[in-house]
Amino acid sequence: MDDVDAVQAQIARNMLTSGDWVTARLDGVPYLEKPPLLYWMIAVSYKVFGAHDWAARIPVALSAVGLCWATMAFGTWAFGSRAGFYAGLCISTCIGLFLFTRILLPDAMLTLTILLALWSLLRALDEEEPRPGLWAAGLAASLAVGLLLKSLIGVVFPIGAAALYLLFTRQLFSLRTWRRLRPVTGVATILLIAAPWHILATLHNPPYFSLSMKSAPGEYHGFLWFFFINEQLLRFLNLRYPRDYDTVPRLYFWLFNLAWLFPWSVYLPSAFRLSYRPVDRAGKTRLLALCLIGFVMVFFTFSTTQEYYSMPIYPALALLIGSGMLLDGRLSRSGTRLLTIVFSVAAIGAIAILIVVRHVPTPGDISQALSSNPGAYKLSLGHMQDLTIRSFAYLRLPLALAALAFLIGSAGTLLRERKRAYAVVAVAMVVFFHAARIAMVTFDPYLSSRPLVQTLKQSPEGGLIIDHHYYWYSSVFFYTNRSALLLNGRFNNMVYGSYAPGAPNVFVDDNGFRDLWQKPERYYVFTKGAGVDRLESLVGAKGLTTVRVSGGKTLFTNHPLPAASPSHSPYP
Predict the structure, then answer these.
(1) pTM here?
(2) Where are the domains of the chain?
(3) Candidate from 153-167, 177-191, 216-230, 385-399 with smallest mean pLDDT
(4) CA 431 to CA 209: how far, in whole Å?
C-alpha cells in the first residue's frame, strides 16, 4: 500500500541493491528516523524469495506468530495450560493484532521483544529456575533487539515496567536481585548487539555531535542528533520538526484498547477478581502485566500517540484476560451476553446493508463511491467514515462473509460449555479476518498505486514525477523500483535528509516542472485530488494526456501516447 507500507519495503530493497546496510534511503535521500532491523529482515527475505510484496510481509507475519506463541507459553508457565491457551487465543484472534500487522510496522516485533524481556525477568528471579543466568542473558538480548527495532522505546518500556515491579515487590534494592540479573554482563550484551550499527550510522552521517535543542527547516546536524534528540526527546515533547504526525486524543488512546482486544476484552473485568499478590507465579505475572500496562499508558498520556503505540500492552492484557476466562462467575457470563448482543446486532446490520445494495451498480473501482473525511484520518479506522451505502455494493462478498462471521459468533456465545463457546468465537474472528482481507483487495486501487504502475509498465519509457509527498505514492517506487522527481516534495519525512551532504537533488518546484513538461523527452506525473487542477494551471489542460485514473489518483504524461498504448479510459 501507499504510505509507510511501501516505504519500509522499498528501504529494504534499496539496502539490498546498494549494499549500504547502515543508512536507509528513500529516492536516494538519507532517511534517518528509524533503526534498521526491520529493513534488514525484509532485505534478507528478498534475498531468499526475491523482491516481491508478499516476501516483504514474511518477517512481520512470522513475528506475529511468534508473539502469539510466546504469549501462550508465558501464560502456560504462569497460570497453567488452559489459561495459557486462552491467552494465546486472545491475542491471535483479537482485532488489534490483525489490524496493525497489515502494514509493515515493527511494533509486533517490538511487542515480542518486550514480552520476552519481561518473561526472562521473572524466570531469572524465580527461585525454582535452574538456569537464571541464561534467562538474564535473554533479558539483555531482548532489550538489544528492541533497540534495533524502535530505538529507546525498546528498552524504556521493559525497564520501566520491571523497575515498578521490583519496587512493588521490594526487590529493587536487593543485592540478590542484581546478582541474578547480572547487569554488567547484560549491558555488555546490549552494547555488543546494538552499538555497532549506531556507531557506523554516526560515522557515515556526520557531523558526529550536536547538542542543539532547536529543530528547524534547513538545518542538518547529522545522524546522532536527529536520531536521538529530534526523534526521541523532541518528539516526546511534541517539538520535533517536521511535525509529520498526528496525535490521538488521550481518551480515545485509552478506550480503543478495548476495541483492539475485542472480542476478548469483554472478559477483562473477570481478571480483576484474581489475586495480584506476588506470592506465586500467577500473582507475579499479573502484577508485572499491570506494571507494563500502567507504565506504557501513562508514558503516552504525556506524549504524542498513535493507536498502535499501545501494542506492547496487548500480551499483558491477553495474559490477564486468559486467566480471567477460567472463571465462571457473574462477570464472565455478563461478558458472554454482551458478545451475543454485539454479534447479533452486527449480523443484522450487515444483512440489512446487503439487502439495500443488492441491485446497486458498481462502475469503476470503489473510490467512485467513497466520501472524503481528512479530519478523521489521524485514526487507524478513520477511513471507515469514507464508506457510503453505495460503497458497500463493491463489498458484497466480504460483507456477506462478515455477516456469516457475526452469525457464527452469536451462535457460539449461546453454547453452555465455555471451552466450545470460546472456540466458536475464535472461528468467527478467523472468518471475519478473511472477510477483511478480501475487502482490502477491493480497496487496492484506493490504498495503492499499483494499478497505475501496471499501466505505466505497458507505456513508452519516460521519467517519473511524483506530485508532492513521497509517501502518497510510495508504492510507485516499490513496483517500478525506480527513482523519481518530487514536485514540491521537500515535505515531512523527506525534509531533514534532503539537506545531508551529498543528498541527490530530486526536488523540483512548479517552474522546474513546467520546464520539464515542455521538453521533447517523455515524463509521467502521478497526482490526485486538487493536484489535477493545479497541474492544469501550470501546463494547461491540453498539456496533460491522461494515461489512467485509478483509486482517485491520476497518471498523466506530457506527450500523446501511441495508438498501441493501453486504453486511455479513466477506469480500469
Answers:
(1) 0.94
(2) 32-326, 331-442, 449-557
(3) 216-230
(4) 53
